[in-house]
Specification:
Length: 387
């Protein structure tokens, strides 16, 4: 009736939800909320979303016209071309630490491009002896196209690891202890679409069985409890699980790569926005896995360090209990199939004031606090995997 779009995916009694209302429905929707039979309190956070999106576009074009092509701004959002060029720049700048990583091609034939950070030094066990196998982490952003803060945060973190290696003792130690597989933009086709057509697009861009309904939710397409609760079989839904598990070529290729490294990868993090939550499996059920305490203690270490930077508050717990049920998710597959114990889904800033349209002046603070959280988590994991 009102053609509203729910930004919130979890619905609880006495908890706020975020909705986007088209201009023509604002008055009638407000009237509905204030009916005696409803009496629902509401607050307008963004009166004109279109104006905010247009302002971001204009500012980006202005910055690009004024900046040097090699001058990458970490406090700005960037196109996929700029991000891929930045990866090439990191490879050229830090050749002793960085190697390019192309996982494969997307549905629309774009490179799924990331990079690996490795000092090529042997890791050291807690007792001081050399470890026989160096462990690795996998961090990705942009699996949901409209969540721009996640690629921006991943990029900030990657640069922090590289630029401070050899200068900061903690960072140097952790880069020597782990290899890092970093994929700034997972859903490359969807991300491009948010820059060219629809800033609030979420899914991939593959064709479906329903005309004019495109893509699947790449965080519901994994082959672990696929398309159960918290997913949709409707191709027009934002939660569409796909025609089958791993139907999305991007998901299938990333899963294949991770599976090939399953003996070394000990930490998987899928960065999202928004809600400020650090979550562990399971998503498909409210039951907790046997290793929940081990995982959740890692979440606690991370968010305590994160909060200490800018006082940003995060929730923690299982995905299903903290935010909502979501079957066929990345974190569940990484833990349930790839046996990656420290598997997480992280929802970055904010809690709804800007939602998916987080202003650029929050990129650096988000990166700073998230990086602090990751360092604390890695120190926690290190004690477990190198015991």
């Amino acid at each position: 009736m009102y053609d509203i779009n729910f930004w919130s995916e979890h619905f609880s009694i006495h908890e706020p939800i975020d909705v986007r209302v088209p201009p023509q429905a604002i008055d009638s929707f407000a009237d509905f909320l204030t009916l005696d039979s409803a009496k629902i309190e509401y607050v307008v956070h963004m009166a004109d979303i279109g104006a905010i999106i247009e302002r971001q576009r204009v500012l980006h074009n202005l910055h690009r016209s004024l900046s040097n092509t090699n001058d990458f701004a970490y406090n700005k959002y960037h196109t996929i071309e700029e991000i891929h060029a930045w990866i090439d720049q990191m490879v050229a700048t830090y050749p002793e630490l960085v190697t390019p990583l192309t996982i494969g091609k997307s549905y629309e034939n774009r490179n799924i491009k990331g990079f690996k950070i490795s000092s090529k030094k042997m890791a050291t066990k807690i007792d001081g002896t050399k470890a026989t196998t160096k462990k690795a982490v996998w961090w990705d952003g942009g699996i949901h196209a409209r969540e721009w803060i996640s690629p921006a945060t991943i990029i900030y973190i990657g640069y922090a690891l590289l630029s401070k290696y050899g200068q900061n003792p903690t960072i140097t130690h952790l880069v020597d202890q782990f290899d890092y597989y970093i994929l700034p933009v997972f859903n490359v086709d969807g991300y491009v679409y948010t820059w060219t057509e629809d800033r609030l697009w979420r899914k991939t861009r593959s064709k479906t069985s329903v005309p004019f309904c495109y893509g699947a939710d790449p965080n519901r397409n994994w082959d672990y409890h696929w398309c159960e609760r918290g997913a949709s079989s409707d191709p027009c839904s934002d939660l569409f699980c796909g025609e089958k598990a791993f139907s999305e070529i991007e998901i299938a290729q990333v899963a294949k790569f991770i599976a090939s490294q399953r003996d070394t990868i000990v930490n998987y993090i899928n960065f999202h926005a928004y809600s400020q939550m650090w979550m562990s499996p399971w998503g498909y059920t409210t039951m907790r896995p046997a290793q929940f305490k081990l995982q959740d203690d890692g979440s606690i270490q991370a968010i305590n360090a994160l909060t200490a930077v800018h006082s940003t508050k995060y929730l923690h717990g299982t995905i299903a209990q903290t935010i909502y049920l979501s079957s066929g998710s990345t974190a569940d597959w990484a833990y349930g199939i790839a046996n990656i114990t420290f598997s997480y889904g992280v929802e970055l800033r904010d809690t709804g004031e800007y939602g998916f349209l987080l202003p650029e002046d929050q990129i650096i603070p988000t990166g700073e606090e998230t990086f602090a959280g990751l360092l604390a988590l890695l120190q926690y994991i290190e004690k477990y995997v190198y015991a």
